[in-house]
């Protein structure tokens, strides 16, 4: 099972909405949403996902960003309006303190009827953790481990549970112009089961670093994942970075810069037609035909869609 970790930015939610029927049909992907804001888009799409009964993990104690809502507000604004009708909604809880407190346990106890995903961002005292685990069936608790934040010996103490490894594959550069044409992205889809995990996850082409907002860039980069050698069943995954050419240390003409990068992406797809696997590539090719720049947010949405469609094909 693949778990895609998002922080409910609008274009991430739109990407999920565009593919929700495919995601439900495949049964291979469960999004994890950390609601860093309670804007109208978040409320709108949670209701849409509830209506579709999309399998989803919603984190009740978000911590990214400077204005993350409280667990009380997440419950009031996102969970209560759809709680009774959303049977495929699971609850996520981020562990980032060395010990679960009484208030943590009280919060978790509110969701005794739902599956719980504990996201281990640090190693937690097992005595306090077991006081919660003893109240739940083994099959109803999933442990998600931030790969770089906890040790193997810590993870091994939860072998009787469903375990998921979460890793950031996106090697972010400070400037778009610094991205190489292509680099290794991941082999986690191939090794998570031999390593003893029941699921794996990542942060797609967004990465784990959270930014409240972006700004104009000197260069436009389109991030595009693909199997290394074209073998969907056996390959590692690379990521291509298609970059604009006429950057010239200026932030003007994002439209022209995008079309330069898009031309390279479409040429690559034309040379490798096996990459036409779904709606994401089709949207890129349509933008190229129309020579249209939809703004950078929708471009990221399309890259996310393509990544999801690739994972569905490869696992």
Question: How does this structure look, described?
Answer:
- This is Sce7725 family protein.
- InterPro entries: Sce7725-like (IPR047727).
- It comes from Leptospira interrogans serovar Canicola.
- With 315 residues, the protein is of the alpha/beta class.
- The chain has a domain at 1-166: TIM Barrel, CATH 3.20.20.20.
- 35% of the residues lie in helices and 19% in strands.
- It has 11 helices and 11 strands.
- The chain has helices at 10-18, 20-26, 40-52, 71-79, 102-109, 126-133, 152-155, 188-191, 254-271, 279-290, 296-314, and strands spanning 2-6, 29-33, 56-59, 89-95, 116-120, 141-146, 162-166, 182-186, 199-202, 221-227, 237-243.
- The strands form 2 sheets. The protein has an 8-stranded parallel barrel with strand order 1-2-3-4-5-6-7-9.
- Helix 7 links the parallel strand 6 and strand 7.
- Helix 9 packs across helix 10 (279-290) and helix 10 packs antiparallel against helix 11.
- The longest helix has 19 residues, at 296-314.
- The radius of gyration is 20 Å and the shape is globular.
- The N and C termini lie close together (8 Å).
- The mean pLDDT is 94.
